[in-house]
Amino acid sequence: MRLKRLELQGFKSFADRTELRFEGAGIVAIVGPNGCGKSNLADAIQWVLGEQSARTLRGARMEDVIFAGTRDRKPVSLAQVTMTLAEPLADAGPCPADGKANGKPVDGTARSQPRQVTITRRLFRSGESEYLLDGRPARLRDIQDIFLGTGLGPDSYAIIEQGRIGQILSSKPQDRRLVVEEAAGISRFKTKRRLAEARLEGAKHNLERVFDILEEVGRQMNSLKRQAAKARRYEELKAEWMGQLRRLLATRYSLLEREAARIALDLNLANAQLQRVSGQLAEQEAQYAQLQSRGYQAEDASTASRQRLADWELEAERTRGRRESQAQQAASLEE
Ligand code: ATP
Prior knowledge:
With about 325 residues, the protein is of the alpha+beta class. Helix content is about 55%, strand content about 10%. The protein starts with a strand and ends with a helix.
């Protein structure tokens, strides 16, 4: 991959949008007076690749990468750097985004179109930040994955600032080894091994958890077995109880059936008796009605007789009165 384009806006001394294009296959040298911003360009490349240390970028806080203003110009609120890397036409291999940045084409065939990748990093003064990969939001991890083992990642040998060569030469062999490993592309595999080991560790933890769960499930199974045995015993007892209840009810039923037959017989007898007594009652009632009507007739006759008697007594009284008056008349006539 070759650096094709670098665009800065609001980054350190580059307040305005500044675009640098790197054409051809040679070496690019940036020259200029002290303090004109040469190192700021290297900082911009490091920053867009995901550098997290403000000190490495020669600042105290990450916010220091945002243009802080000058006597004549106000500060800005956003720093943005966009970098485009492309495969040279001649050895166009798989895209770095495939995680094979420094490999030859897998199938050995040359590609007609050079592939390229564009990375953007933005930082707002509010602290909000974002990465874009080919214009789409991405995680820092995605950016780091692309450059793993290519010498372009953070802490890699590709960007060596002032004084760093001396530091590398005088550093411990182990530290130098890191630089050599990155150059040889071993660090990519080391990182992969670290990730695989972390995954293995995670899998081990998961396995332990599975064993714990298995143990717990075993315990629960024993308890369930005990409960199942109790449930079976309950079913047996219930079946036995139902059998006994059925027998008891059957006996009770036949007893009640016999009792019902006996009561039905008694009922028939009582009905017959009732009919007989009802007949007698009807007869006696008829006799009573007859006697009653005869009583009424006798009573009527007696009332008529009493009336005639009263009439006769009245007639006798009148007759007596007439006889007395006639007797008096006769006496006076005699006189
Ligand atoms: P030298 O040749 O001395 O190493 P240089 O060309 O590498 O210098 P840089 O160190 O890249 O210069 O740039 C330093 C300049 O950048 C200084 O003038 C400094 O004021 C300016 N600068 C750094 N950070 C900011 C910022 N956040 N806002 C505005 N200007 C900044």
